[in-house]
Design goal:
Layout: E1 2-5, H1 14-29, E2 34-39, E3 54-57, H2 63-81, E4 86-89, E5 101-106, H3 110-113, H4 120-136, E6 139-142, H5 145-154, E7 162-164, H6 184-187, E8 194-198, H7 207-217, E9 224-228, H8 235-244, E10 251-255, H9 259-268, E11 271-274, H10 283-290, E12 295-298, H11 303-307, E13 312-314, H12 319-330, H13 344-356
Parallel strand pairs: 1-2, 1-4, 2-3, 4-5, 5-6, 6-7, 8-9, 8-11, 9-10, 11-12, 12-13
Length: 357
């Protein structure tokens, strides 16, 4: 039996999306005995599972409560009822005192590689818990070879303990858009030509570099820049830079969006740009490519591995190169071919092999 911890489910976040989609894909394959741990508030979206296959946690409304439950309550509960089960935590945080066998998924080690990318408290906590978790885990799943190499770089670990299983991604382009669920502000963008990026606003995502690159090319395009994503750490600096560069009439911030709004933004965009300094996988460029949008991305970390020759690449540290790559994307006469090799079904099937091993 495998017990999958989906307490972090939030469909607007990367790990939350991974938790939900992977739990659903493994469950529906019906190849192993599989139970899913969920918050009571998320029960409605897990209706694909029989109730007896859900372990429902109550009273978890924030990350501190979730972390406590994952570390101290859930391991004891599982061992008492299912002492021979494997527990899969789909993030780099293992239940340190668990007596069951443990699998964790490591998405990235940005806190190790990106200076100034996180608060000092977050960096300290991630260093401590990831070190303990990698030692504790019986199996570590890395979502790319890049992430695998990062783990080997920073931790003393048997290479045979790590396996690479690529993420799936949600091909929204095949879904119908419910226009009633789109805000008037986003609907109004249809009349504009725009360059799109989808990202949390934080230092690691290099919004500063993107704004400077857009400022560099603003007189060579009539497109505006649309930044879709929630405010993260140090987001205020990004808004200040827009004012300093005099771009307030050309840059649009949507904030967080729902799936219908995201699909609409992809469908209507002229081109997509992703200037991140560090990605363990990078889902937004794949989502954009599924709509046939030309994509320009950073040439670092996992992105060349995941996207192959389907994108135009630039150095995220070179503002002029970012800007020129965006223009190159917009002027492409022959669109690059996108072959989707990433599905949650494939991800689930590969993971089941590791469960059985």
């Amino acid at each position: 039996m495998v017990i999958f911890n989906a307490l972090q489910t939030s469909l607007s976040g990367g790990i939350g999306r991974y938790s939900y989609e992977l739990a659903k894909a493994v469950y529906l394959l019906n190849e192993i005995e599989f139970k899913i741990v969920i918050r009571e508030e998320d029960e409605a979206i897990f209706q694909f599972a029989k109730r007896e296959d859900l372990i429902i946690a109550k009273g978890i409304s924030n990350s501190k409560q979730r972390n406590y439950y994952e570390q101290f309550v859930l391991p004891q509960k599982i061992y008492k009822t299912y002492p021979n089960a494997i527990i899969h935590y789909p993030d780099s945080m293992a239940p340190i005192f668990a007596k069951n066998k443990i699998i964790i998924t490591v998405h990235d080690l940005a806190f190790k590689s990106v200076r100034g990318g996180f608060t000092w408290k977050t960096t300290l906590w991630k260093n401590i818990i990831t070190n303990l978790s990698i030692k504790k885990a019986d199996k570590v799943i890395a979502i790319t070879n890049f992430t695998k190499n990062e783990i080997l770089k920073f931790y003393k670990i048997d290479i045979n303990k790590i396996s690479v299983v690529y993420n799936g991604f949600n091909d929204f382009s095949k879904d119908n858009i419910d226009y009633d669920k789109i805000s008037s502000g986003i609907l109004s963008l249809e009349k504009d030509r725009y360059i799109l990026t989808v990202s949390t606003i934080s230092p690691r995502k290099n919004m500063d570099g993107l704004l400077k690159a857009f400022n560099f090319i603003k007189n060579r395009t009539d497109c505006n820049l649309v930044i879709c994503g929630k405010d993260g750490w140090l987001y205020d600096d990004v808004y200040k830079l827009v004012d300093e560069l005099g771009l307030s009439e050309r840059v649009i911030f949507t904030g967080g969006v729902n799936d219908n709004e995201l699909m609409y933004l992809y469908k209507s965009a002229k081109t997509f740009v992703y200037p991140s300094f560090y990605e363990g996988f990078g889902l937004p460029p794949l989502e954009a490519m599924s709509y046939g949008i030309p994509v320009a991305v950073s040439n670092v970390t996992s992105m060349p591995e995941v996207l192959g020759d389907s994108a135009i690449y630039f150095s995220p540290y070179n503002v002029k190169e970012i800007g020129n790559s965006i223009l190159e994307c917009m002027n492409l006469k022959n669109k690059k071919t996108f072959k989707n090799e990433y599905s949650w079904d494939r991800c689930a099937r590969e993971l089941i092999k590791h469960y059985k091993d």
